[in-house]
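Thread: "does anyone have the structure for this chain?"

Original post by V.I.:
We have the sequence but no experimental structure in hand. Need at least a predicted one for the grant figures.
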Amino acid sequence: WYLASTLVTGLGMVAMAWFSRDALHWGALTVVMLITNVTSTVSGMAVDSLMAHSTADEEKGRAAGWFQAGNLGGGALGGGLALWLVQDWQVSVLASGWVMAALCVLSCVPLLILPEPAKTPHESRAAHASVLARFKGVLWGLWGDLWSVLSSRAGLLALIVCFLPIGSGAVSGLWSVMADDWHASANTVALVNGGLGGLASAAGCLLGGWVCDRLERKTAYCLFGLLQVVLAVVMALAPKSELSFIVLASAYNVAVGMAYAGFSALVLEVIGRGAAATKYNIMASLSNVPIGYMTWVDGQSYERWGMSAMLNVEAGIGVLGLLVFGAALLVVRSRSQAKALGAPAA
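Reply from O.Q.:
Generated one for you, tokens below.
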């Protein structure tokens, strides 16, 4: 699935470059973009499954860090490279599309040394069943795998994390909006949103993944969220200059990368190996909820009260999210301990 989807994604990049040359091809370009986005999503799901099956439990933090480094850093660096080829090196759009497609296909090389996850006994038996029986078996097995996660203490806590504004990094989506407050030029904003931001996020992902293999992953994730809170307050109080913007925005991007790696490590820890791609992506999809509502809250705060107030609102809601998660953790642990002792939970 990874090989097939990545090859189609690469061809999609070439096709997008081809059709974008003529305004008459906007309809075809839209279709190609849709197909390419779908196939790139499938390749991401294949990676989720490979991580869950091929990574030892004690290394899932590092795997999550590398995964999110590619997710956050790769997107920024890849987009920056495409713009650099077209605008600075004056490479044609079509040739740039071929370069990006080649880089996409090169990511398949590690498959040569990566073992294919072994089939479960259920999958082996289903191989000889009818199509309808296999479909029913897949649905029933998927429900069983999902319920096993949701009914566990770790799975419940991971589900709670998905909806809380811990480590959402919503401020990083508003750098261009805040540029005038920091007296930052358009080139500076492009730098922070592009190459430098991608490198900072990727570095944060790798650092966060390393930490997650050395601390309890729930604790690490909360620490990363707390770091974002601190940086938001520092940004609200810091002198507003272009240099401060570059330094603090980059530091915040590092914290965002750490939080993303922490979330992935936490999810990989609880989902197990059955239906791993589905379970991971359900959690990842739900985690977009706090990103969405925090971006809206930040935008409203900025329009009403200005940048400093917005940053303090972001920090305050982040603290509230940490307190809610701490309370949920205490409740779940107390119930688990009461159940283990055979006593009724308070």
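V.I.: this helps a lot. Residues 18 and 199 are 29 Å apart (CA to CA).
O.Q.: and Residues 307-341 form the longest helix (35 residues).
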